[in-house]
Amino acid sequence: MDSDLREEILSILKASGEMTVATVRPDGYPQATTVNYVSDGLVIYFGCAAESQKVWNIACNDKVSLTVTLPHFSWEDIRGLSVGGRAAPVTDAQEISRVSELMLRKFPQILRYALAGKKGVFLVRITPEVISVLDYRKEFGHTDLVKI
Question: pTM of this prediction?
Answer without folding.
Answer: 0.90
